[in-house]
Amino acid sequence: MGLVALLSFGVLSAQDTLRIYFRSDSAVPLNAGVLKEWKEVGGMFELLGHTDQKGSEAYNLRLSKRRIAAVRALLQPQEPSWHEGKHITERAFGESRPVSQNDSLNRRVEIVVNRPVVAPPQVLKPPRKGCQAHFSGGILGNYPLPDYVEVIFDSNARGSEWVGEGEYPINRLAFPNSVENTFDGIAADKGTRVILYEKEHFQGRVLADLEGPFVLTNVIWAELSAMETHALRAHPVLDSLIPRSRRRYSTENMHSWSFGSVKVICSER
Questions:
Q1: What is the pLDDT of residues 150-197, one digit of tens each?
Q2: Ordered structural domains, the chain, with CATH
Q3: Is 81 exposed, middle or buried (CB count within 10 Å of its CB: 0-12, 13-18, 19+)?
Q4: Which residue, 68, 166, 191, 221, has fewest beta-carbon neighbours within 10 Å?
């Protein structure tokens, strides 16, 4: 009169389903111990209730809802922060979705877990002359100003990443320092092309497709003359890397660019 079979599992993939099977006309789970393994699982839980085809359609729909409620009662106390609409959603199907001619397999509640997929760390390729790009949460200039300006192509810049050629599908993983401070400066050497995409994995619109050498500064700094001096002023060292004619402001606020993806392509390999 309750829980009689359970699908075992090892390491969960991005989506896994656990099936709890019930005896006929029952919504009273007897053994909750196996659900303890799900206690540490994160993500969105979806509870799908089903019955066999014995009884009326209306009765079976109600029974599938009772079975969902019984399983949910077992899950919720294990994690008090779960609540309807946030971590657990429910759908009752009654008798409408049989999976077998064996009624004992149709009397079930499926617990579907959709977990956020954790991507592996992205490996940044080292920069080299003629193949380097610099992404910064500050303005890129010729000398540092704490919290505002970082030196272009300088490995000591703390709020930025200086990288070589590569495809970087998730900015927040490839450029954590820049993303934490939001993009305000991007630069590339001669022979280096930088393509910025609106969304991760090179999806959405192309925000910018730029050929080096260039320095691009967030347009929100354009009205601050002191910052403009750092970004655009003449300076022998900076001018030798990026001519003033190749240093400009963006046409839109670059802060939203932080959360997309980037390709760095070099003409010389």
A1: 888 888 777 889 999 999 998 888 998 888 878 889 999 999 999 999
A2: 3-114 (3.30.1330.60), 133-266 (2.60.20.10)
A3: exposed
A4: 191
